[in-house]
Amino acid sequence: MDSILVATHFSKTSNNAVLYSASLAQLFNSKLILFNAFKLPVHASNTWISASSMDELIEKNKEKLKKKALMLSEKFNIEVEYKCSYVNLEDEIDSLMKLNNSKFLVIGMSDKSMEQNLLGNPTTTLISMKKFPVLAIPVCAKFSGIHKIIFACDVMQDLPLRVLAKLRQIAIDLESEVTVFYVENKINELILENKAHENIEKGLENVTYFYKKVNSDAVIKEIEKEIVKSNFDLLVMIPKKYGFWESIVHKSKTRVMASGLNIPLFSIPLE
Asked: Which pLDDT score, from 0 to 100, does residue 84 have?
């Protein structure tokens, strides 16, 4: 049985992500796994703490997870497991995803701020790892079905069929229509654009989809405007790979979008 792994640290944002992921687990008939990467409270991290005290704190977290797992299992009629470890989430998440046969990781999405844009946050860090799909849930998002998906992409970039196949499966499972939305400020590269269209046609076979193109230099603003105007339920993006020097100059559009949205963001890696 496959699973959905959701990271939680009991904040309002992560609690909302847990509820959203429970609805998805019910819809997909998947097991839900609650994972808490335990961190010492601030007051405890500034003092010496014994191994037994550490174990006691971890057990308290496990008890909180257990109660939440039981509540979710009863409310949504799904199988729920819980895990708590004193680890760095970014270091362990890849092995956790593989070990639990997880379809994707669900995590809460932070509000937009200047600090988030410059330094990122746990969500943007996990997306930038580009090893597994990440579903980021804003605190205001409530699950009521996902009927309209906006797939924001760069048609001048290669769109592998295996990536499109993941989007296709999600759209079929959710019975959603997909709008392929791209913002283009170059109008001469028709050969590459047509090739991308061919891949999309193959990759999204049996899915209702539409194209929408906007000529603009303000990519992020155009995506945000379209989300508001057309009442989409989910934004899908592919994080673009940059080399070391490019990464200093460029800021991933997926990373920028992963804070401050009012709808969930689903990031599908190229790998």
From this structure: 81
CB atoms within 10 A of CB 215: 10
In this predicted structure, the answer to whether residue 88 has a pLDDT above a threshold of 60 is yes
Tokens, residue 264? 């969930």
> Per-residue pLDDT averaged across 16-26, rounded?
96
| Residue 219 φ then ψ, to 5° | -60, -55
- Asked whether the beta carbons of 109 and 265 are under 8 A apart, the reply is yes
> At residue 105, does pLDDT exceed 70?
yes
Mean pLDDT across 176-180 = 93
Pairing of strands 134-138, 265-267: antiparallel
3-state secondary structure string across the chain:
CCEEEEECCCCHHHHHHHHHHHHHHHHHCCEEEEEEECCCCHHHHCCCCCHHHHHHHHHHHHHHHHHHHHHHHHHHCCCEEEEEECCCHHHHHHHHHHHCCEEEEEEEECCCCHHHHHHCCHHHHHHHHCCCCEEEEECCCCCCCCCEEEEECCCCCCCCHHHHHHHHHHHHHHCCEEEEEEEECCCCCHHHHHHHHHHHHHHCCCCCEEEEEEECCCHHHHHHHHHHHHCCCEEEECCCCCCHHHHHHCCCHHHHHCCCCCCCEEECCCC
Of residues 31, 41, 32, 56, the one with CA closest to residue 9:
41
Question: What are residue 102's phi and psi, to 5 degrees?
Answer: -85, 135
Tell me the average pLDDT of the chain: 78
